[in-house]
Amino acid sequence: MVAASGGKFTGTGRLEMEGDDCSFPPDSSDGHSQRGSVASSATLSRAQDVLVYLFGDSAVHLSVEGLGSVTVQELGRSVREALHVPESAQDAFAFWLCSPLLELQLKVRHQPYKLCRQWQDLLYRFTEASEEDISQDEPCLQYRRNVFYPKSKELQIDDEGVLKLLYEEARSNILTGRYPCDPEHWMGLGALSFALDEGTGLDSQHFTSTIREKKLSSFLPAHVAMGSGGLLSTLRGKSSRQAGLEQNLLEEYRKISTSAANPPEPTQLLHQYLNTCHSLPYYGCAFFFGEIDKPVQGILQRGKRKAVNVGICLEGVYVMDVKEKHVLLGLRFSELSWDHSYPEEEGDSHILWLEFDGEEDGTPVNKLLKIYSKQAELMSGFIEFCVELKSASEGGAAAETDGEASVSQQSASQDGSSKNGRGGRRGMLHRQNSVVCSRVHSLNTISYVDNGKEIKRLKPKRAASFFSRQASAPTYSAVQVTESLEQG
């Protein structure tokens, strides 16, 4: 099971089971669990109406028999049929259980109904939410992008319906700031969204009136459209800023309208939008919630933490500032080592450790970043699985070009520039102005010399060092719902 946590899910809904006997009272038999009671087998064997939500405020309505035991694989066939998803693209999507507190990508063998009943137990295990928030939280069943689907395969999709599903999800992540991007990106993406919604033939007057009717936040990220001045900004200043954004959006829209002799087809616009998103390294990530230490700036600021989203995909790990909407640290798997530690004492946190190369006063050092999160174990396992998948795919490619690979490896060993394992240093990170690039200078990290001996001070003790963890490819063991939970 892949778990992720982040900001509030747009288009939030819940797994709805319409019927006279599907309203379950809380189960108070367990002091920590508030799951609904089990419906009778007769009720669950009858056909139940289920809503599977999509991005873009739409849903697929299904009538499901035997809801209590139906699997993701069985639901998938019905949803793909309803959405006309071609067989060639069926792996692009997966089922997720989502709420503002937690997001879970399900496997084909999972049974969504049982997981819904276990939802509050999962919240206690993987979130820091209060008991009140947990008791009120309800998941929805959602059909969305499979985090393990390669971007290279996505580029080959031509079906307009499938592209629209991928577009709606990417658009949501752009507008909510989950995918940080620079002005040249979000302005171009906003113009493409407008063209897809309204067509490419509007003149300036109709464009402006439509923008003001629908609001800029329908096309630009919320933190951009709303601004950061709050109550301190004057109405005149805000109005001037809005007018500037509208004008810039209009200019980008005109480029789309006049870029070709014939108006672009929707599939062309969808491809253009997704291709731009593919340039963001964290496109398609699963997101987890955590905190990191703030840099110490004085006695009064010691011990303070910053909320971060941790995005993990097949390419690497990305730590993002939740408030500022920019990347704090981006590491490809060839640039990092990692580990996870459990709490030693009551009040301690689960920690995901990320180790990477840096400099201190011109001296090469190893840096450690601590990410505090109840989802640290999930993140560590997810990284491990992604490394295995990447190694397997690269191994297959290497087998096809064995001769070239041998020459390349010999060259690499001669110049000592190996990226992985103990043989050489990983690529150095460079700070830039773009929101997509790492801000290592703003992180509170632990530095130690290159021999790695100081790793011993990390607690609790780990079975493997960072270096052996990076170089080896241990068998991945996904986090499973315990048998006691499934039996309720």
List keywords for this structure.
488 residues; alpha+beta; four-stranded antiparallel β-sheet; 36% helix; 19% strand; globular; disordered C terminus
What does this structure look like?
The model is unreliable at 4-40, 403-432, 452-465 and 467-488 (pLDDT under 50). This protein is of the alpha+beta class. It contains 16 helices and 15 strands. The strands form four sheets. The chain has a four-stranded antiparallel β-sheet with strand order 1-6-5-7. It has a four-stranded antiparallel β-sheet with strand order 8-9-10-11, covered by helices on one side. The chain has helices at residues 41-45, 72-83, 112-117, 119-126, 131-136, 151-154, 160-175, 183-198, 204-214, 222-226, 235-257, 266-278, 376-400, 402-415, 466-471, 483-487; strands at 2-4, 17-18, 48-54, 58-64, 93-98, 103-105, 140-145, 286-293, 305-312, 316-321, 326-332, 337-341, 351-360, 363-372, 446-448.
Entry summary:
By secondary structure, the chain is α+β, with helices and mostly antiparallel strands. The protein is built from 16 helices and 15 strands. The strands form four sheets. It has a four-stranded antiparallel beta sheet. It has a four-stranded antiparallel beta sheet with strand order 8-9-10-11, covered by helices on one side. It has a four-stranded antiparallel beta sheet with strand order 12-13-14-15.
